[in-house]
Each structure stands twice: as C-alpha cells, then as structure tokens.
Records
---
Amino acid sequence: MKGQTGYSYSFLHLNVKFTKLWLCLWRVFFRSSLWTDSCW
C-alpha cells in the first residue's frame, strides 16, 4: 500500500499544479481586477 499511497500523492500534486495553471489562464483570459497577483 505504501507504493500506491506515493502514487496517489504524486497524482494529487500534479492535479494541484494543473489547477494553478488553469486558474492563471482564467485570470489572464478575463483580466479580472480582483486577481491582480501573479500566476504563481
């Protein structure tokens, strides 16, 4: 189970990275004044 847990954590980490990327793209697309911080 240890290996499977590591795999799940890696997949979750990858999901978080993609989520941040999508949020960044949405901010740039809408150019919302509410999100003035950088992508990362």
Note: The helical segments are 2-30.
---
Amino acid sequence: MGCATSVYASVGKKKRIVQESVVFVLQLRVPVQSDLQRQLKGVAPKTTVERLACLRNQIQLVAEDTGGSAISELRTALEEYLSLLTGIVKKNCRRDAVDLLLKASGYLEFCIREILTRFPPDIKSKLPDDMQESVLQTLSIQALGQGTEIQLGLAVDSQKATLSVKRRLACEQVIYFSQAYQCLSGCEVVSHGCAKKLLRFIYWKFLEAKAAAYYYHGLVTDKGNEPACHVSAVCCFLAAAELLAESKKACFSFCLAPPVTRAPPMWGVMKHLSQKIPEVAFRKSQTYGYLLEEEEKAMQCLPELPDFQLSLRPEEFELPEIEAGSSEGNQTHLLSEHLEDYSDNHDDDEDNDELDH
C-alpha cells in the first residue's frame, strides 16, 4: 500500500543519499476466541482438532502476556499451528469452491430473471450501480469463469489430466471472461466507481486465460510430426508469452483503478504458468529457429484457438413459497421507500464530499 509511489523517481542514477521508502506491513493480531472443536467436528480427526485448539490458546496466551515480545515462542507455535491447519485443506476444498461459485451464479441469474423483471421502471432507476442488470449478469458469468480457472488448477495438479483436457478448460475460461467483458463494457455505470475496476479485473483475467489457452494449444500442436505443427506451436508459445506480459500490465492497471489496491500474488494455475510459459517459449523458439526462418508467412498469422462448448452452468435456484399473509403490493411499497432513503443518503454523502473539497 504505497510501495509503488515511494520508489525514487530517478531510476538508473546513483544517489549518495538514499531516499526514505515507506512499506506497509500487516500487523499481527491476537486470534479471537473460537470453539474449534465444535466448528471442525467431523471435518478433521479429534486429536488434530485438540492440538489445534491447544496451539491456538498457547498463541493467545503468549501474545497477550508478553505483548508479542516472545518472538521465538510465537514463531514456534505459529509454525506448528499453520502446518496442522494446512494439513486439513484438501483438493475437495477447491471442488467445494467451484460448487459455491455455481451456486452464486445461480442466485444472480435468478435475481435477473425473477426479481429485476418485476420492478417498476421508477424503482429500477433508483437501484445502485452494482445492482444494475448488466453488472449482475457480468458477475454471474465471472463466477463461471473463475470456477473454470479452479478446475484448470485441479487438472494441472492431476497426473491423469491430459493436455487436451487442460487446453479445453483454458479455452472455456477465455470464452467466459470474454462474455463477461462484453456484457459489462457496454454498460453506462462502467465509466466510474467499482464497475470500472471490475471491468479491468475481468480484462486481466481474460488475458491470463488466453495466455494459458495458447500455451496448452501449443503443447498439443507440438505433438504433430510435420514441420508446420512445430512452427504453429512456436507461434502459440510466443503469443502466450506476449499475452502473459500484457496480463501483468492489465493487473497493474486494475490495481491503480480506484479504490487503489495492492497487486495480489500469483496463485493457482497462473503461478505455475508464469514460470513455464517464458521457459517453453524460449526453448522451443531456439529449437525450431531454422523452421521459423523458412516459414515466415506462418509467423504472420496466429493459429485460432479451438471452440468448445461451455461445461459449467449456473445452478438452478428457486425461492421458497411466499407466505399467504405477505402482499406483493406492500413489498413493492416498502422497497420503494428503502430506495428513496438510500438515494437521499447517497446525495447527502456527495454534498458533504463537495463541501470537504
């Protein structure tokens, strides 16, 4: 938080006096009270849960009694606590995350299909920007894209997953994020606020997905015996490397969009591919350099990615039956009052901001 702006401006010039640099570091906090034995019942072995609870209490006691000065004791307890905690996390957690993303996508689709369509125009016009139909639709598609990204990560970790499966998942991810970008880019609210930042996030993920798709498409194509297959594969690898570099710029653009955020660390499949793509692109271009010189025309056109039918769909969701005592007209009236209150408070906040400036 602020690391980028604290870098000295004159890059490349030696200075006798080093300017002060400010770096934001998260503080350590004493863990809150939590009944781990109840929360983890049936999830982890009883002995593991008891050991976790014991270590958690030990961390709390050391931190509170010493004010955090007993660094060695804290570090020992934290390292053992974290090793036990990460041992509970399994691949099933990632699969559960995919299921939750499908549920979230289903909730948003239901909201668009069954709720927004029942709003009168005067109420629709008062809805916040993040409740607009195009934004909700974008979030629904984004959830499917990120679910596919997790599936690709599982495939990369699996020895049984073939290159064709990985390529298919990467190509599906490209389609999802492309649809999400097109859905949001035509929306009026994208010119400001969180919608603008969301658009940059989706574009960043789209470039990452496309880099992965070209990488795996190159690996599949390179298995051919013809020289043209190797040339086409090298084109894919070089395109993947270029897209990866562009995705890093897009990530930086996303972070700078207000509200300004810190660049997240590489994780999942992109942590793996950020190292593999440049290595493979360099090695293959060196290996087949003589073919590239002979096939100059092939280098001028990038191979098209294969088109696959999308696998993930939003999970169907239906609301429970409405009680007989509730009135649709009364609900609409209450919603209208709520939105009027929101609009008034929002206008007051803007007026206060203008006065402050």
Note: Residues 36-88 form one domain.
---
Amino acid sequence: MAFYKSFAVFSAFIMATATAFVVPHAGPPFALLNETGPHNAGKLPWHALSMRASNTTQATNTTTQTTDQPADYESHFCFDRWPTAERDVIDEGMQYLRGLGGNPRLGAGPGTCSRVSCSYNAAIYWCNDNTAEYTLDNFGRIADAAHFIAYNCEYDFNGKGRFYTSGQVFFKKHWNVYITGGERC
C-alpha cells in the first residue's frame, strides 16, 4: 500500500494529510492510513478503511451525539465564513467517522487542517492550532464536534425540512472542527 504526504496552502490554513494508526486485526502489526475521508479523491478506497480479521470486532467510538457543548468547548460560530452544506450529507460523514478506529493525528499548527470526510460537496475538516503535533482519542471526537455544528448552526432551506449547516467549533486544547459546503470531493 503506497502512502503519501501532501500539503497545500489555502488562505491562513495549511491543508495537511491526516494520519491515524489502526489495527487491521487483533494485535500488531499496525497500519498507517492517510487521508481517511470516505471520498478523498479516490486516494484510498472505502473498503480499504474497514480492514479487520473476521474474528475481531469492529472498532467503535464511544462518544455520544448531542447538541450540548462538547467536552473542552471554547467557542463556535455559524455560517459566516463557510458555505453551507446539506445536513443529511454531513450526518453521513459523522456516521462514517464514528465507524473509524484509530487515533486521528495532525502535524504542528497553527492552522494545520485536514478534510476527514467529503461527499456531495459537503465536508468536515479538523484543524490543529497547537505548535506541536496533536492526537485525538478517536474520530468520534471529530464527529461530536461536527454534530454540535450541524444541529446548532442549521436552517431549513424551504420550510420543508431540508436543513443546511456550516460553522466552526473551537476547543480549549487548541483544535477545531468546521463544516463547509461547496467542496470538490
């Protein structure tokens, strides 16, 4: 399996490849997966992210879905900076993230970001504003942050239950998550 590292500068952010250590079966060896979003330009096929031996259980994230402030919450804003995305598509991205095993990790920031989910022009990014590499407990932390945005920063497009969302949530430990639309997935 070939791995790569790519960087591109967009505005004040450095777009980086997210990495995660996952165990494809019980015990070593470990596999290092890069760009773990489900539709990240075909760099890793969807099925490659669900490697596991048939006699093991799938990794799950034990985080909860709530519109309450996530742990370590600092602040958030809605809509202003990011184009809107369909909330149903973001929900699918959150579900995908909750199914991933491993610990998401980003290189030193501030402003180092990685797209961890992208589908139908709707994306979830997570960013590291620390001056050193930062690792989260699991991808569910990113999903929780996205859920907070999706359900606190929403509007019904036509009054018929078609919700759109965008925004960014910041955490005291100097990381953040944002939802945006208009992406080329």
Note: Residues 88-185 form one domain.
